[in-house]
Amino acid sequence: MIDQMYRKAVLTVAGQKAIENAVRARGWGMAQRFVAGETPQTAIQAVHDLKKDGIMANLDLLGEFIESPAQCTQFADNVITMLDAAHAAGITPYVSIKLSSVGQGKTVDGEDLGLTNARRIIRRAKEYGGFVCLDMEDHPRVDQTLAQFRTLHGEFGGQHVGTVLQSYLYRTEKDRDGLDDLSPNLRIVKGAYLEPETVAYPQKADVDAAYRRLVYAHMQAGNYVNVATHDESIIHDVQMYALAHGISKDAFEFQMLYGIRRDLQRNLAAAGYRVRAYIPYGRDWYPYFSRRIAETPRNAMFVIRGMLKG
Ligand code: FDA
């Protein structure tokens, strides 16, 4: 409950324009802890650095709720540029996209622009043997994102496209069951948006319990699972569950955010687990940064100290 109140308070404050302007003016130095840089080259450098520790990468060009169709298409072009740059640097690209950034909800030439642009991105990623994960956003987008995932999965195959389920939503276990016919590659997260009690568990204990159930169910169904959390107790339980049920270490991977729990990321990789860091980059870092601050008061203290040092 306290976690929910803290998150609500931070996201509400962060949504105010004056706060945004103040943080944008002084915050890039602090954001660098969570964001690899503003260009594809800085992100690619981060991929190389992580590789030295045996950690794989998931590149994410930042940008949310981009307004005009032309901007959405430009954003998709920028993701494709990044795929090209990664391929040229000898990296098999693994990227995440938010469908809202590439036009979800806008109809152009009789089709949802998010679907059109996602298709262009996945086509290019597939040419390079890569993978695109469709991030999950706030709850009104879940139905359309799952429907578009199903379409894209049909067109490109599960080796090249996956999506995300959020354990804080009441609906998610049913959603997972409903995707089993695809044997999908799914990332399981707790959920990062401010959601009402009508759709999401208000208590952290319920979110955590649903998280475990989702991961175990997806493993039991024989599907590849991306266990995306920094929660050590869940990570431990998943390790034990996999051991007890004969699920091999290459049937799942742990995913964490760039700059968060690097010690844990390295230790898991050293122990032979697959580990992937989610590397955000780009100029539009403020909403991403706000959500990281909302996740734990420790991060808020880090920002406040940074601003006081100013
Ligand atoms: P929880 O919040 O319970 O934290 C567990 C432990 O980790 C605590 O000790 C906490 O302090 C620490 N911790 C958590 N976040 C931290 C941070 N930012 N800094 C420092 N310590 C931190 N969400 C979404 O809605 N859609 C999506 O597509 C994605 N995608 C995604 C990809 C990947 C790779 C990850 C790791 C996460 C996401 N998320 C997401 C975000 C996710 O929903 C969730 O908000 C965060 O992962 C935080 O929750 P934890 O599972 O880490 O647990």
Write structural notes for this entry:
The longest helix has 20 residues, at 69-88. It contains 13 helices and ten strands. A hairpin with a 2-residue loop joins strand 3 (107-108) and strand 4 (111-112). The strands form two sheets. An eight-stranded parallel β-barrel has the order 1-2-5-6-7-8-9-10, surrounded by seven helices. With 310 residues, it is of the alpha/beta class. Dihydroflavine-adenine dinucleotide (FDA) binds at residues 135-136, 164, 166, 187, 189-193, 228-231, 255-257, 260, 278, 292, 295-296, 298-299. InterPro entries: FAD-linked_oxidoreductase-like, PRODH_bac_arc, Proline_DH_dom, Proline_oxidase.
Question: Secondary-structure map with pairings?
Answer:
Layout: H1 2-14, H2 17-26, H3 28-31, H4 40-51, E1 56-61, H5 69-88, E2 94-97, E3 107-108, E4 111-112, H6 113-127, E5 131-134, H7 142-156, E6 161-166, H8 172-179, E7 186-189, H9 204-220, E8 225-228, H10 232-244, E9 252-257, H11 262-270, E10 275-281, H12 286-295, H13 297-309
Parallel strand pairs: 1-2, 1-10, 2-5, 5-6, 6-7, 7-8, 8-9, 9-10
Antiparallel strand pairs: 3-4
This protein binds dihydroflavine-adenine dinucleotide (FDA).
Cofactor: FAD
InterPro entries: FAD-linked_oxidoreductase-like, PRODH_bac_arc, Proline_DH_dom, Proline_oxidase
Organism: Deinococcus radiotolerans
